[in-house]
Amino acid sequence: MKIKLLLLLAILTGCGNSKVERSDYLEVTGRIDEKMVAEVAKNIHKIHSLVITSQGGETSSAIELARMIYDNKVNVIVKKYCLSACAQLILPSAKTIEFVDKPILGLHHSATSILEFSKLQNYADANDLSQQLSEKEQTFFKYIGLNLDIAEEPIHYLEISCFFEKGGYPGVGSKWGFLVPSPSTYKKWINKDYTGEFASTNSEILTSVRKYIPQQVSMTLVTEEQASWRPLSAVPKCS
C-alpha cells in the first residue's frame, strides 16, 4: 500500500498583509486494511480531502475508514480507480465526491449479499462470519442514512456460476468481476450527487483501463446496460 500526504500552500494577500492558508490532502493507494485505516486516522484532523485509489479490501477496515470519513466530513476524490468496498462504503460516506479524468468505478458483492448467497448454498459453516460482517455493514448504512441497494444489488449482475470457500468465508465464481453502474443508478444507490464523471461506457472503460490498470492485471467489467439482472440461486461448488 502506498500512502502519500500532499500539503498545498495558498498565499492570500490583502490590505498590505500576507496570510498563509494551508489545505491538506491525504492520498492513499492500495488495499483497504488496518494499515491504511491507521494512516488516515493519524492525519484525519489535518485534512479536508482524501484522494483514494483502491481495489477494495477488508470489510471491517473499510467500514472503520468510511465511518471516520463520514464523522469528520471529509471530501473524497478518485483519479484512477475505486472498486468493491471503495465504491460501496468509502464513497457514500464522503461529504462530497469528485471523479477526475473518468476513473474506473466497479462494484460486485458485499457482506450482506454474500450472506444471502451463502444461505442458498446451504453453506452453514460460513454463516456466522457472514452474519457478523453483514450486521456490521447494515448498521453502518443505517448510521449514514442509506438503504441497502448498494450492498444488495450489484451481485445480481455478475452471472454467478459457482461458489468456493476461503478461510471460512464463501466466494463466488462469476463471468463478470465488477459491475459498472450507470451514473443515474450510482447516484440513486449513494443518495447524493457528485462532480466529474467515472468511465461508464465501453469506450470510456477501455480507455481508462489502459490508462490506469497495469497490463498484468486481469479485470472483467460489465456495464449496467450490457448486464442482465438475475436472482440469486443455488450453484455448484467451483472445481
C-alpha-based Rg, rounded:
19 Å
Q: Would you list the SSEs in sequence order as H and E?
A: EEHEHEEHEEHHHEEEHHE
Tally of strands: 11
CATH topology: 2-enoyl-CoA Hydratase, Chain A, domain 1
Tally of helical runs? 8
Main beta-sheet strand count, sense and barrel state: 5 strands, mixed
CATH class: Alpha Beta
* Integer average pLDDT: 88
Q: How many domains is the backbone divided into?
A: 1
- Summing up helix and strand content along with how strands pair, one would put the structural category as alpha/beta
- The low-confidence runs, each spanning 5 or more residues with pLDDT under 50, are 2-22
Based on the structure given, which CATH architecture is correct? Alpha-Beta Complex
| DSSP strand content | 25-35%
In terms of quaternary structure, the protein is single chain
Helix content: 25-40%
The first-to-last residue Cα distance is 32 Å
Strand order of the largest sheet: 1-2-3-4-6
Features of the shown structure:
239 residues, alpha/beta, 2-enoyl-CoA Hydratase, Chain A, domain 1, five-stranded mixed β-sheet, two-stranded parallel sheet, 8 helices, 11 strands, 36% helix
Description:
By secondary structure, this protein is of the alpha/beta class. The chain has one domain (2-223): 2-enoyl-CoA Hydratase, Chain A, domain 1. The chain contains 8 helices and 11 strands. The chain has helices at residues 34-43, 59-71, 85-93, 111-120, 124-143, 149-152, 183-190, 202-212, and strands spanning 2-14, 17-29, 49-53, 75-78, 81-83, 97-99, 104-106, 160-166, 169-174, 178-180, 221-223. A 5-stranded mixed beta sheet has the order 1-2-3-4-6, with helices on one face. The longest helix is centred in the middle third of the chain and has 20 residues, at 124-143. It is globular and about 50 Å long. Mean pLDDT is 88; it is low at 2-22.
